[in-house]
Amino acid sequence: MTRPTTAGPLPGPAAGPAPLVIACALTIERLALRTGTRVRAAPARVLRTGMGSEAADRAVAEALRDPALAGAAVVATGFCAGLGSGMRPGDLVVADEVRDPRGVTRCAEADVLAAAVARAVPGRTVHTGPLTGCDHVVRGPERARLRSQGAVAVDMESAATLYTARRTGPRRVAAVRVVVDAPEHELVRIGTVRGGISAFRVLRAVIPAFHEWHRSSLLPRR
Fold first, then answer.
1. pTM for the structure as a whole
2. Is residue 47 within 8 Å of 21, Cβ to Cβ?
């Protein structure tokens, strides 16, 4: 069984009491997040959970037991499968909610985050809507069924990550995914990410948007 691994805090100045946790599943996602251009508005930690909802549940619950992460905002990120016709690898999905059999977790200020994402990766299409969880690679009719239920994309960890994050205490949560698999651009298997170089680059470039979204929660409200 693969054990989840975590990375230490990213260096940079602190700018508020609540840190930021950026959670992903795959080593290639973690590499993109660790090597990307970073604008640090607050302390951040990259957490690699491992694949699947059970791994995400365990890793997030364990990480958030750390007193240093009390009240931390959590962003679930990485790659996903797009559900809509016309979606392409390198498109982005900003969830306004995530779903799995346990229910729905609402995402804080998805419109603010979507705008920040669009600024971080100009020229890329940004889709906003429900992100659904699944424990396997989705194909053909199942993809159409999930789309008919209103979801714009599917992945294996976001719903579990945010459900567990909220279960541990009140905090802001969000999910941003980069499309590597879409109806007209299906992968052979989810771990391959063949032709996903553009998606890797997009994930690396979008990091400043996470910090902009997080910084917005640290500003005084009028």
1. 0.83
2. yes
